[in-house]
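Entry 14. Structure prediction run on the chain below.
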Amino acid sequence: MHIQHQLVSWDQDDGIKTAVTGMLTSGLSGYSLTHSDIGGYTALDHPLVRYHRSKELLMRWTEMAAFTAVFRTHEGNRPEDNQQIYSGEQTLQHFSRFAKVYAAWKPYRKVLVEEASETGLPVVRHPFIHYPGDPEVYGLEYQFMVGSEFMFAPVLDPGEDEVEVYLPAGQWVHAWTGEVYGSLKKGVYETVHAPIGEPAVFYKQGSEAGRRFRSELERQELL
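Output returned:
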């Protein structure tokens, strides 16, 4: 399912935040494969209302899309008013980096797509699917799991280089640093450094899918 036609904005009513909301709610409604246009679609240029896609928004949306079922760009309805992946060297290199990140978890994605066809479980999942006994996860709005092994908390506001993520009970490995977070006894909130290029993605300690992902990141010299 394509989460369609968001504004090229950060807002929670029709911007990047609604792409997360749309994926999570669609996954619970039977749509197992979801994605959104990288950077959003709808730009507006009106004396009273103006929405143009910024470079930062495009780059953050690129990071998020790399952890969904489909990694897909869109110029939008007004290409000349939007930052594009080809607008400059920085955006082009960023897109190239996250195309490789997307490719790095291909083996696990194939497993999840097969699981989706057999069970209906979505690729992008709300954490309560796997942690129904943890009341804290029910209030999570803007972080998601990829299958049962990865936890992702995208940066969804401009000018931010850190993000708060909730990690259910257990130990979780930060994909970029290898640092272990979390508690075996209970879920914890962590505020983690998340500069552009290294969004907050974790995998369960001991996860074979996570180990293969990090190994491929290292092989591609992305760490």
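The chain has a mean pLDDT of 96.
Filed with the rest of this week's runs.
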